Amino acid sequence: MSIIYVLIPLAIILVSIAIAVFFWAVKSNQFDDLERHGSSILFDDDLPKPADKRPPSKEQDESI
Amino acid sequence: MQTSCYHCGLPNDPHQVFSTLVLKQPQVFCCPGCLAVAEAIVKNGLEDYYHYRDEFAEKANSDESDILQTLSVFDDDSILDEFVETTDKKSEIQLSVSGINCAACAWLIEKQLAKVDGVLQIGVNVSSRRAVLSWDTNKLKLSQILAQLEKIGYHAKPFQPEQHEASYRRENKRFLMQLGLAGLMTMQVMMLNIGVFFDLFGHLEAETKVYFNWVSLLLTTPVVLYSSAGFYASASKALSAKTVNMDVPISVALTIIFASSLFATIQQVGQTYFESLCMFVFLLLISRYLEHGARYKASQISSNMLEYIPTSAMVLDGQQTKAVLAKSLVAGQEVIVKAGELVPIDGTVMSGQGQLDEALLTGEFSLVDKQPGDKVYAGTQNQLGTLTIRVDNNLKHSVVNQIANMQTQAMANKPRIANIADQFSQYFVGAVLVLSVIAYVVWLNIDPSQALWITISVLIATCPCALGLATPSALSCAIANLNSKGILLKRSDALEQLTKVDWIGLDKTGTLTEGRFSIQQTVNLGHLPDQDLLSIAASLEQYSSHPIAKAFADHPHLQRVEDFSVDIGLGISGTIQGVNYKFGSASYIQQPLPAELAQCNIVLLGDNQLLGGFVLNDQIRQESQDLLSRWKNKSISLISGDCDSAVAKVANTLHISNWHAKQSPEDKLKLITQAQQQGYTVLMVGDGINDGPVLAQADVSVTLGAGSDLAKSSADVILLDDSLDKLDVLLALSKRCKQKIKQNIGWAIGYNITVLPLAFIGYLSPWMAVIGMSLSSLIVVVNSIRLLK
């Protein structure tokens, strides 16, 4: 049972890290808009530049 | 061929075709506006938008030149001062963007603006329909950026968040952090203690238990110090105001449980209750967070709805005109107001002739004729003709502003009513204190060494966990339910007050009635079938901006009109398929009317032959009749600014015995205050600027989504889809909500009373307290969730 003297403090450290990350996320407005970012990964992120880039991105889109 | 617009999804015009290539396929659009937007999107290489979107866009506006002119007002320095935060290199502004309805819109806007040279950053928030924009003021004007957005079909406005919104936002974040911390810590502490309760680790040595207690103490301390800070703050605020609210017993319980557990850990005697404490805080925070979130959302939507468009004015400067902001006008200047424009300021007509829509001010939609010498008021709209106005007063002293001031005052004087939970908590605190003293004294005589621990377990048994959840959980569920039905609740305690309402004040035009002309009767002299008569009238009226035109607006068969002309205040004429028609009042026709047409407000003449006429009226909404028949047992008053005969007619039809006509905003306010002094709880329903002050004064006020901004900013409840029968839904739900709150309080107290004897005789172990606490809270929450249906 003496292992718990190591494991529990370890758990506490992990929880502290989790809380720090969570606080950072709240403070940097990550929770402000929960509707949008779920789908934004599906959208093409590159600004469509000259014509040479268009056709390939088109095909990808149609497969969505 | 497609029959609906590719861009906005509305039906296409069968007579005209607008089409362009989108994604290499020809697509058809309903109007030049939608076509222009789609072409702009394609030209910018953003046509993928049509792939991504899952909802149709808003119908685009066709007359772009007007918009661009209005937008230039936003470059004025006084606007920049008010809305824009400027640092040396960049300016930042918050915009409320209408037309955003899915994530693809955000993508489109960001991509469109990112290409504009000078835009530094753009972030779009879909759920609040807003954007934060920062740009380089040296390279770009704000109006140019807004024009870019107009091109792709979005209307962006600098907006003023509602007063409380910034603090709501801060609070929301704080709640989220407190909740997250409490949640994570509760999991840890629970994990340790469940093991201890049920001996999952086999037999635990005393030493290990002490170690577990210290770990729990370490994990619980931030929950007590940080997550519960809101409870202490609210409790001390209540105590310093010499009242008691629900947070007082909660804070007392938290402090005592923590202090006794701390003592038990250090002294290694007695029981610790860390896990109960953590869970207690976590559950309370969940329901508070949800309630707060529902209110935050409502305040966001309602402040987006308040349009902020600074009115510009065309000032006569010698022979030329120049655009200035209305608030910079001073008495003596002369302003020109064209047809379709808002009158920017109070003044006197110098020359010209026009018809004004004063609906926002008086609540009445019929146009008012203005001649030289007549007064005109800021906020009214010039429908026909051009007026030259001499400014009488600056904007600060205009009638609209006086009404707005009256509203602010009324808001400040509004009576406050304590809610059930807070009233109840006074007795609760007293009872808990008395019980613990009794427990202590009794046990001092039986076994002095046990007295302290028994008293603490009595306090834990009476811990107001479920009680604290009773109100907020019910309120948040009720608000969420109302939101989904299109009822926006800006103040949650309005729900409790609604159940007490026994005096209802109703506005007439726009509230009980449709607020527009509709065809009540068609009189046909028999030369043409009814269908053709309507079709000709509707075709003529499609070019008119007179309120009468709206009566014919939804007619499906429109014909091409040539030689269209308007005679201000009289009627319109035009040629359809070679026949010259005149459509207007009796004096416009200049012919004696037969007896059949005597009732008609408007008659149709084709090639000098009378064809027929229409009786137009402001129709009473179907819902008003149903609603009032169900409200027989309440004291109802009809309060209107309209003339006696019109108000009496509506009152008679709806069987309202108590009506007041020709009421100014001050008169209305007096009526309401009188009723309140007589001890009534007043519900006011209205929609105009003239209703603003009464809405603010009434105990609960309801306005319609189509109401004026002033009304929306002072009302507690907004019926977004303008259907009056939602009032019944609202009243019914408020009753159910109050009932649920009472049931919840009943359950919570029931639990406390059941475990109290156990605590009194010293049999309440920590695991019993935890299970009891969570069960009673669960029952309360599940009971509240039923309000969602």
Characterization of this structure:
The complex is a heterodimer of chains A (64) and B (789). Chain A is mainly α. Chain A has a domain at 1-30. Chain A is 59% helix and 0% strand. Chain A has helices at residues 4-27, 37-40, 54-63. Chain A is elongated, with a radius of gyration of 22 Å. By secondary structure, chain B is of the alpha+beta class. Chain B has 6 domains: 1-62, no CATH class; 67-159, Alpha-Beta Plaits; 169-302 and 418-475 and 736-788, no CATH class; 312-405, Calcium-transporting ATPase, cytoplasmic transduction domain A (Distorted Sandwich), CATH 2.70.150.10; 484-513 and 622-733, HAD superfamily/HAD-like (Rossmann fold), CATH 3.40.50; 516-619, Calcium-transporting ATPase, cytoplasmic domain N (3-Layer(aba) Sandwich), CATH 3.40.1110. In chain B, the strands form 6 sheets. In chain B, strands 17-29-28-27-18-25-26 form a 7-stranded mixed sheet, with helices on both faces. The longest helix of chain B has 35 residues, at 726-760. The radius of gyration of chain B is 33 Å and the shape is elongated. Chain B starts with 17 loop residues before the first strand and ends with a helix. The relative contact order of chain B is 0.08. The mean pLDDT of chain B is 82. Classes of the chains: A mainly alpha (64), B alpha+beta (789). The A-B interface holds A 1, 4-5, 8, 11-12, 15, 18-19, 22-23, 26-27, 31-36, 38-40, 42-44, 47-48, 54, 57, 61-62, 64 and B 45-46, 48, 51-52, 103-104, 106-107, 111, 114-115, 124-128, 173, 176-177, 180-181, 184-185, 188, 192, 201, 208, 211, 215, 218-219.
Task: List the keywords.
heterodimer; A: 64 residues; mainly alpha; 3 helices; B: alpha+beta; Alpha-Beta Plaits; 6 domains; seven-stranded mixed sheet; six-stranded antiparallel sheet; 29 strands; 19% strand
